[in-house]
Amino acid sequence: MSNKETIEKKELSSKNTMIEMIKVGRTYGPDITALSDISFSVETGEMFFLIGRSGAGKTTLLKLICNMEIPSNGLIEVAGYNINTLKGNDLAHLRQRIGVAYQDFKLLNDRTVAENIAIAMEVSYKKPRAIRHRVRDLLDQLQLSDKHNTITGELSRGEQQRVALARAVANSPRLILVDEPTGNLDASTTEQVVALLTRSNKAGATIVIATHDKSIYQQSKHRIMELCDGSIASLTRGEQP
């Protein structure tokens, strides 16, 4: 059985839990605690909001989930795997199933918008025709069709933010992590971003969104976890309209 088939089989066997954290902590140096005693789970197919003030630990938590950082203590499982013990091809295949829209975008600023979005699909060996179709469809949804061949470094921050989101969802990953997706956007563009994430969620993706923007989570049925000084302050459900 190939590494890819092994990952897929393990994902199916993980039942209804996509993310599991048990007593997770993250410290930097001798006296900086970013996260402490974090325990929660996110169900497969759930949309989950992570809120809290700047410095509360939201970005650190997302980095731990996608293995950009290693916890100082505790257990993190993603799709049934202890993500911090995976290595080599197993880790690479699991990462292909995770899409991340970073707060600082991490785009290739000397490449075009289309090239940035296509990257996630190219590493999964999607057919060129399918890639071109998906790129154009995402740009249409985010009203960026006229930026298809624009060098990404020439875009505004709001445009770069939408490109980063398009890249994160392009390969239809099982898990999508989004850090402050609407921080540089007006109300109309925020609606487009929320609509894209909602469509991805309805298609089966598990989505975790770290945000300060109350407009995208207050009037929803989804769960909301608030961090305060690196600890869980509350875990509630939004007020469904």
**Helix residue percentage:** 25-40%
| Integer tally of domains | 1
Helix and strand pattern: HEEEHEEHEHHHEHEEE
CATH overall fold name? Rossmann fold
Give a brief outline of the structure:
This protein is α/β, with parallel strands linked by helices and 241 residues long.
Task: Provide keyphrases for this structure.
241 residues, alpha/beta, Rossmann fold, 6-stranded mixed β-sheet, 4-stranded antiparallel β-sheet, 10 strands, 33% helix, 27% strand
Structure, explained:
- This protein has one domain (45-66, 87-237): Rossmann fold.
- Helix content is 33%, strand content 27%.
- It has helices at residues 3-13, 58-65, 88-95, 113-122, 128-141, 157-169, 187-202, and strands spanning 17-28, 32-43, 47-51, 73-78, 81-82, 98-101, 175-179, 206-210, 223-228, 231-237.
- Helix 7 links the parallel strand 7 (175-179) and strand 8.
- The model has no long low-confidence stretch (mean pLDDT 91).
List the helices and strands and how they pair.
Blueprint: H1 3-13, E1 17-28, E2 32-43, E3 47-51, H2 58-65, E4 73-78, E5 81-82, H3 88-95, E6 98-101, H4 113-122, H5 128-141, H6 157-169, E7 175-179, H7 187-202, E8 206-210, E9 223-228, E10 231-237
Parallel strand pairs: 3-8, 3-9, 6-7, 7-8
Antiparallel strand pairs: 1-2, 1-4, 4-5, 9-10
Helix pairs in contact: 1-3, 4-5, 4-6
